């Protein structure tokens, strides 16, 4: 009986050591130079069929489905996606190809699909555009995922 208890105690100690090692490794990987190798940026949001692409505070805003959303940095498109039937969009970015500081200061989302596509009463010209802001990070396995969201779309017209 004593050897059985010793075996259980040994297994419990080994499990605790393994758990502490994994926790410490995860903490080290989620901060510091290795985190950029094991991380992702996720840009997501909701696009509405309104004059500025944002939800209206006074009424239920319809979604803008099948709209092409572009992520542009310094004029170059680095990613694109389409909204789903609920107006949701999401894109994943590799941090080895773009820096977080660059995403927040030199990049913006644009909507290539005219607003009139979702509602004929909305403008046929102009581009919806939004800068990005960080919305926190989460750890998924060994990956650190930094979430970026639009600061708020606005309609840009060329006059």
UniProtKB/TrEMBL annotation:
Signal found in the keyword field: yes
Residues annotated as signal peptide: 1-27
Keywords, in A-Z order: Signal
Name this polypeptide is given: Phylloplanin
Protein species of origin: Trapa incisa
Highest classification ranks of the organism: Eukaryota, Viridiplantae, Streptophyta, Embryophyta, Tracheophyta
């Amino acid at each position: 009986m004593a050897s059985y208890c010793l075996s259980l105690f040994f297994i419990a100690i080994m499990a605790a050591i393994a758990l502490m090692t994994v926790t410490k490794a995860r903490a080290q990987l989620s901060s510091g130079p290795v985190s950029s190798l094991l991380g992702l940026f996720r840009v997501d949001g909701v696009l509405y069929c309104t004059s500025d692409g944002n939800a209206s505070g006074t009424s239920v805003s319809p979604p803008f489905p099948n709209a092409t959303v572009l992520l542009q940095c310094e004029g170059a498109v680095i990613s694109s996606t389409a909204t789903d039937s609920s107006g949701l969009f999401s894109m994943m970015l590799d941090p080895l190809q773009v820096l977080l500081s660059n995403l927040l200061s030199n990049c913006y989302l644009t909507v290539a699909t005219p607003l009139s596509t979702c509602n004929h009463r909305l403008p046929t010209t102009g581009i919806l555009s939004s800068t990005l802001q960080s919305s926190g990070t989460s750890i998924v396995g060994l990956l650190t995922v930094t979430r970026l969201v639009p600061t708020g779309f606005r309609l840009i017209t060329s006059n």
